[in-house]
């Protein structure tokens, strides 16, 4: 069965209506449409108000009446690839932390204890997420770099160049200049995430002009990105025991993914109408406050979903130790399997489910979103141990199976609810503002990630003091 849109959102009563079959939508359009527009319309300089779409430009109205064809779901897979690409820089750098801590900044390599090692992850997180958040929000109000194509192309090019620099830094010996290496790396991370903030936000704005499944494709790609990074890490470790060589594999893999993103953007134009609509957008300045007020509930849902997830993953889950020494997963693979592989795999599965079922409606999505806040205390009550911290909070969930089940549900709910929340955001406003609403959704997503990561610095103190 084909659909003209994945769902329709009724602003008056705040519920999602059932999908409308393409045949029904076509018949309705045929009955309501008095004249079929010809290409000469624009050449005649007729006022756009003569269209039956008072709030839309001619290009946007044409896009609604004639959705871009997606033969073989190639456009869907293109957005999925870009979803993988926008999170690839973050995933690859956190995967390569052993390369920095145990190789480039190790005392055996540089000859002394490097003072930035204990808080290296905090420095990396700060330099990654602060510019990412700032440029996500700036990209909504200021078209940094020009139109959509220019922004995406320059952002990807900048990321490719910075990853090439990172690979070169991995290949050269930096034992005699560790401080310079640290600062150069952090500067690369800052510029990488400035570009990525523009890239990520623009891709969400672009998908918001299309049916909701394309936004879902980006979220699915985000979750595949984490799974992909975990698999690359495992394969690299299996192929070589040299941390430096494994890190080079990580960065080259990220470089390859970005090149694929670059190629697919040009190799697969959606169609002429879509590119015209995206390039022109809304001619007047969008009413930002109005859009935020209309989309506020879904923006809060997006923020809370990613806040909860990043408040515990990977900081808490990666520090949960095996409780039963006879558990069938050994301590060497426990974190890799129960944390990274489990969460990323089931988050990916959760992102696929909205292709077949979307529930609850926009009006009630906040209920499961708020209930997910319970994950924070639940995971803290597992066997979460931090080096150098004597745990005062009692371990309530001592079962490895219990913890693993929680990890599975965390991934599933993250993938599923984040997908439908992002799909609902553009439907809260008029069609001509959908792109801007989608960009607000992308900014809410990265802000939730950033705030969630910041809260992880509280948990070691909490387990060491609460319960005394």
TrEMBL record:
The keyword Transmembrane helix applies. The chain crosses the membrane at residues 74-100, 152-171, 177-195, 216-235, 247-268, 288-313, 333-357, 364-381, 401-425, 437-462. Its main location: membrane. Keywords: Membrane, Transmembrane, Transmembrane helix, Transport. It is found in: Membrane. The keyword Transmembrane applies. One of its GO terms (molecular function) is nucleoside transmembrane transporter activity. One of its GO terms (cellular component) is plasma membrane. InterPro entries: Eqnu_transpt. It is a multi-pass membrane protein. Belongs to the SLC29A/ENT transporter (TC 2.A.57) family. This is Equilibrative nucleoside transporter.
């Amino acid at each position: 069965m084909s659909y003209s849109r994945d769902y329709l959102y009724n602003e008056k009563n705040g519920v999602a209506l059932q999908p409308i079959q393409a045949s029904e939508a076509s018949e309705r359009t045929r009955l309501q449409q008095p004249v079929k527009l010809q290409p000469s319309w624009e050449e005649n300089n007729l006022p756009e108000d003569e269209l039956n779409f008072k709030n839309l430009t001619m290009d946007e109205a044409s896009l609604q009446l004639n959705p871009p064809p997606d033969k073989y779901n190639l456009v869907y897979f293109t957005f999925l690839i870009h979803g993988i690409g926008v999170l690839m820089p973050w995933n690859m750098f956190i995967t390569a932390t052993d390369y920095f801590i145990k190789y480039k900044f190790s005392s055996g390599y540089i000859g002394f204890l490097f003072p930035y090692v204990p808080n290296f992850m905090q420095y990396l997180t700060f330099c990654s997420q602060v510019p990412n958040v700032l440029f996500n929000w700036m990209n909504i109000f200021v078209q940094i770099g020009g139109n959509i194509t220019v922004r995406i192309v320059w952002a990807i090019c900048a990321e490719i160049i910075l990853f090439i620099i990172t690979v070169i830094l991995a290949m050269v010996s930096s034992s005699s200049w560790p401080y310079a290496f640290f600062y150069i790396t952090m500067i690369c991370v800052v510029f990488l995430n400035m570009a990525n903030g523009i890239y990520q936000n623009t891709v969400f704005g672009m998908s918001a002009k299309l049916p909701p499944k394309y936004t879902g494709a980006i979220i699915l790609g985000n979750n595949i990105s984490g799974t992909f990074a975990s698999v690359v890490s495992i394969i690299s470790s299996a192929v070589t025991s040299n941390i430096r060589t494994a890190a080079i594999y990580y960065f080259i893999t990220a470089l390859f993914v970005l090149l694929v993103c670059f190629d697919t953007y040009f190799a697969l134009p959606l169609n002429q109408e879509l590119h015209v609509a995206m390039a022109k957008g809304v001619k007047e300045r969008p009413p930002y406050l109005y859009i935020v007020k209309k989309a506020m509930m879904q923006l809060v849902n997006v923020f809370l979903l990613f806040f909860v997830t990043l408040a515990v993953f990977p900081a808490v889950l990666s520090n949960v130790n095996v409780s039963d020494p006879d558990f069938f997963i050994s301590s060497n693979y426990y974190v890799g399997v129960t944390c990274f592989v489990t969460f990323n795999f089931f988050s990916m599965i959760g992102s696929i489910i909205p292709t077949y079922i979307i529930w609850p409606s926009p009006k009630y999505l906040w209920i499961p979103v708020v209930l997910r806040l319970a994950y924070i205390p639940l995971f803290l009550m597992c066997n979460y141990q931090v080096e150098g911290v004597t745990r005062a909070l009692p371990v309530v969930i001592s079962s490895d199976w219990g913890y693993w089940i929680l990890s599975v549900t965390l991934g599933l709910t993250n993938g599923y609810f984040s997908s439908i929340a992002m799909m609902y955001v553009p439907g809260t406003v008029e069609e001509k503002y959908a792109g801007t609403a989608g960009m607000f959704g992308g900014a809410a997503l990265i802000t939730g990630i950033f705030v969630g990561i910041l809260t992880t610095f509280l948990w070691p103190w909490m387990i060491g003091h609460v319960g005394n």
